[in-house]
Amino acid sequence: MDEVPAGLTVDPGDPRPPYEQLKQRVLGGRADGSLPAGTRLPPVRRLAEALGLAANTVAKAYRELEAAGVIETRGRQGSFVRAPDRSGELAVQAARRYAREVADLGLTAEQALELVAAQLRR
Fold it and tell me: Nearest Cα to 1, choosing from 43, 58, 59?
């Protein structure tokens, strides 16, 4: 039997719908490391039963998390937490390196931007 990961709870006093609470718990767990990439989530029916929710409520949360790229479903293997997309963070790091290098070369911001635009059009 799959164990329910700590933190996957719903609060009846919370004004948000249970599916939204569940989504936020998964997002928070991924962000804080309590649900690292590769964590297998319990099957919909089992989690619904453990939390006292309708299966459709959990299924809705899983569908929305999957559509957002937060989890992936691998057929009969189940649903798993995906690693966050770091492309934006990596692009910012590359831009910072480029900005330092063109500044060291004495180029203006306009010249640097023109060079980047030319490369992107290639």
Answer: 43
Instruction: Check whether residue 49 and residue 102 sit in a common domain.
Output: no
Digit-coded pLDDT (tens) for 77-110:
999 999 988 888 888 899 999 999 999 999 999 9
User: Looking at the whole model, is its pTM more than 0.85?
Assistant: no
Residue 11 exposed, middle or buried by CB count within 10 Å (0-12, 13-18, 19+): exposed
Both tokens of 97, joined, read 């390196």
Q: Are 82 and 37 in contact (CB under 8 A)?
A: yes
Summarize pLDDT for 19-35 with one digit per residue, the tens: 999 999 999 999 999 99
Pairing of β 40-41 and β 71-73: unpaired
Cβ proximity of 22 and 28 under 8 Å: no
Residue 2 lies in a domain: no
Query: Is 36 found in the same domain as 60?
Result: yes
Axis crossing angle, helix 55-67 with helix 18-32, rounded to the nearest 10: 50
